């Protein structure tokens, strides 16, 4: 059984158990009948499906099986598929869990799924808010989770096993999420990460997906994507807040100069090792960093790759405020919820007054940085650095 549990845990981590599993064997999680007044709406159910992706603690295999069974019952009804063979351990465990729900009505399964996820979230110390805006289209993959609640739209990088490195798909999804957030009824937008890292920057495996046009075409399309991505941050009309939950690397650091507020845990570090990687600064940092911290401190970071602690980054103006890691999530979300109740139009207009004079300049800088980086990506220095990382010879 330990072997099966281990394999299930690995499958869970890999996302292969697409939707998790509750059952009769666990009295603490008894299923209950509910009347119309206690119905879980489809929206509640979808929220719970999103919420489960953001659990900070692994809930364990038994709970995952319960989630799986409830999900299947809620979406497909009673189990009437053939029982897997005895040696097909994983599918048999899943089938047993689903089958144990018998003729439990779909609606009750849905309610129980929502309740179970809610109890798990309450005990997982996660203070990420996870109600999607009613009409928001969710990103194409689980690597980005967009939620909206209490006047705050939160975009969460959700690849904790890869330190939230940004894939090409994630850049596209963040662009779409920012466009949607700029038009939704939230007052504030937040970018944060799930897991121990905020973000480890560009996913270096992005460089391995070479199109038929070769590396030149790859560099060209990368530069266009980079420019579009950074343009969205330059133009974002509402207060934009980074909740930096852990170390930040590369482009996740450089774009902080385009945020309005940066809150960081004292566990966070800020690292832009562009020379080490044969690359050059992006995210308008060649302009914003010298402006924020003065040219020599900016040079230490952007040219020599000096890694800053959260407190150093705060002293130098890149970070607004640093919080102890133990109270970080609680303190930050209490603060943001209070800010989100301020009149939204006034906040938007005040941001414009502060930022608009710089916009044209920032767009020009973004275009220039993207062009320079396009050349850099074709350099031996950059290619060697990427190959070293991918062959596990080098790490920052
Ligand atoms: C189109 C726009 C382009 C914009 C360009 C932006 C430029 C940049 O962002 S430059 C910065 C690029 N980032 C890096 O160079 C970071 C590389 N990663 C590391 O050095 C280390 O992974 C780490 C210091 C971040 C963490 O080290 P740690 O020992 O704690 O964990 P690992 O075992 O190394 O990582 C776990 C897992 O995650 C994978 N991973 C982490 N970061 C990246 C990344 N940036 N790209 C691809 N993969 C990454 C790492 O390989 C591990 O994967 P496996 O478990 O499969 O080995």
TrEMBL record:
**Which keywords belong to this entry?**
Acetylation, Isomerase, Mitochondrion, Peroxisome, Phosphoprotein, Transit peptide
The Gene Ontology terms for molecular function here are: delta(3)-delta(2)-enoyl-CoA isomerase activity; fatty-acyl-CoA binding
Q: Which GO terms describe its cellular component?
A: mitochondrion; peroxisomal matrix
Q: EC number(s) of the enzyme?
A: 5.3.3.8
The ACB domain covers 41-126
| Locations listed in the record | Mitochondrion; Peroxisome matrix
Q: What is its main location?
A: mitochondrion
**Per its UniProt record, what Pfam families does this chain match?**
ACBP (PF00887), ECH_1 (PF00378)
- Quote the function comment for this protein: Able to isomerize both 3-cis and 3-trans double bonds into the 2-trans form in a range of enoyl-CoA species. Has a preference for 3-trans substrates.
What family is this protein classified in? In the C-terminal section; belongs to the enoyl-CoA hydratase/isomerase family.
Q: What is this protein called?
A: Enoyl-CoA delta isomerase 2
Q: Which organism is it from?
A: Tursiops truncatus (Atlantic bottle-nosed dolphin)
């Amino acid at each position: 059984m330990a072997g099966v549990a281990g394999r299930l845990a690995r499958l869970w981590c890999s996302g292969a158990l697409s939707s998790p599993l509750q059952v009769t064997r666990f009295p603490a999680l008894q299923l209950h009948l509910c009347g119309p007044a206690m119905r879980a709406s489809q929206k509640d159910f979808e929220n719970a499906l999103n919420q489960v992706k953001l659990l900070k603690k692994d809930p364990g295999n038994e709970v995952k099986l319960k989630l799986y069974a409830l999900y299947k019952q809620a979406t497909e009804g009673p189990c009437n598929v053939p029982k897997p063979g005895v040696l097909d351990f994983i599918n048999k465990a899943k089938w047993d869990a689903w089958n144990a729900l018998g003729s439990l009505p779909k609606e009750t399964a849905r309610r129980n799924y929502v309740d179970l996820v809610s109890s798990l979230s309450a005990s997982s110390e996660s203070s990420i808010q996870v109600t999607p805006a009613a009409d928001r289209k969710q990103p194409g993959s689980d690597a980005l989770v967009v939620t909206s609640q209490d006047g705050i739209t939160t975009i969460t990088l959700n690849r904790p096993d890869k330190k939230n490195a940004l894939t090409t798909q994630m850049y596209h999804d963040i662009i779409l999420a920012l466009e949607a957030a700029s038009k939704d009824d939230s007052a504030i937008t937040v970018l944060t990460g799930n897991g121990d890292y905020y973000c480890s920057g560009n996913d270096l495996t992005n460089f391995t997906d070479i199109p038929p046009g070769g590396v030149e075409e790859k560099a060209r399309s990368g530069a266009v994507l980079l420019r579009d991505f950074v343009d969205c941050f330059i133009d974002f009309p509402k207060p934009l807040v980074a909740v930096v939950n852990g170390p930040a690397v590369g482009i996740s650091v450089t774009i902080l100069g385009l945020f309005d507020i940066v809150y960081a845990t004292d566990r966070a570090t800020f690292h832009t090792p562009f020379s080490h990687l044969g690359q050059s600064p992006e995210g308008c940092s060649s302009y914003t960093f010298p402006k924020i911290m003065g040219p020599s401190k900016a040079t230490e970071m952007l040219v020599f790759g000096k890694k800053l602690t959260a407190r150093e980054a705060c002293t130098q103006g890149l970070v607004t405020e640093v919080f102890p890691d133990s109270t970080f999530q609680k303190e930050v979300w209490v603060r943001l919820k209070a800010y989100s109740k301020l009149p939204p139009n006034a906040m938007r207009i005040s941001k414009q007054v502060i930022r608009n004079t710089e916009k044209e300049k920032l767009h020009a800088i973004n275009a220039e940085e993207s062009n320079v980086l396009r050349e850099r990506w074709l350099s031996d220095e950059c290619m060697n650095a990427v190959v070293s990382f991918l062959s596990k010879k080098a790490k920052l």
